[in-house]
Amino acid sequence: MITRRSLALATAGLSLAATARAQGAWPEKPVRLIIGYPAGGPTDFGGRLLQDPLSRLWGQPIVIENRPGASQVIASEAVARSPADGYTIFLAASTHASNAAVYARLPYDTVNDFTPIVNIYASPTVLFVGRDSPYRSAAELVAAAKRDPGGMAFASSGNGSSGHFALEMFRRRAGIEVTHVAFRGAAPALQEVMAGRVPATFSTLSGAIGLARDGGLRPLAVGGPNRVEVLPGVPTLEEAGLGIPDTSPWYGFIGPKGLPRPVVDRIASDVLGLLRDMSIARRIAEAGGIVIAEEPEAFEARIRRELAENAVIAREAGIRVE
Predict the structure, then answer these.
(1) InterPro entries, alphabetically (predicted)?
(2) Rg (alpha carbons) of the chain, rounded to whole number
(3) Domains observed in the chain
(4) Is residue 220 within 8 Å of 124, Cβ to Cβ?
(5) What are 21-33's pLDDT values in tens digits?
(6) What one-character DSSP code corresponds to residue 62?
(7) Rounded to whole angstroms, what are the CA distances from 301 to 115, 147, 239, 250?
(8) Among 99, 105, 190, 270, which one is least packed by beta carbons within 10 Å?
């Protein structure tokens, strides 16, 4: 006699078996990697770096889809609405954890609609001035800003960007008042600083490494936990006496909510294995990045922690994106 309970158990068993088969065979088709910024930037760099090695490991092509706009909100929404089958992955930048603090409304829940997979690398923000700037250290810049409260301008790549958050942390810790000038992207902000029309900016090292190498920009301090290999003579903000341990944006793989754990573990394990490859680690370092190699639980903890920290900074600084 078939009862309602036996039918339910049988249905559940078939469902579990189908799920197990699907997970065991993953991937059986191309994997879509969504990136919320244009090609050529520091987020896109990570995707291009891992695209071919992961394709070889998985035996399937990885198709990169750049979907820029609204500080990657458009890309985040696309991922949140994708099936949780492992065939859509999001290469997220750390603005994923700051957007909730600056946007009045988001079309997704930053924690509950996603599955953190692996945090790949970070690119520290760097305090830059132009090559002809009179300032040779962060201390000199701070002293000048204190002599003229509100008179010194700082450029950023946009309202609510990682550089803007770094500036607000710097401003509060240094006890200075400055004028924030938001540009539409890092390139115009850096051009204004190089031209001397804006005195300073916080910009990701990976996005400004070429300009720093050719002397167009002068780095004064690194907003990361340690000095970086490509700028060995430049102190950290903490070494400069400002007590700011880390403002580094990160870049990591995130999936939709409910991504099966075997798929999460497979992706994380393969990425972590590639990050142990010295040739890949070297390319990240040469681009101004720092390997993080953070597993799913640590990555999720970081996102939750930064959500809380960014909410405080945005509230106190009045950072808001309409």
Answers:
(1) BUG (IPR005064), Bug_dom1 (IPR042100)
(2) 22
(3) 30-122+249-317 (3.40.190.150), 125-223 (3.40.190.10)
(4) no
(5) 444 589 999 999 9
(6) E
(7) 12, 40, 27, 14
(8) 105
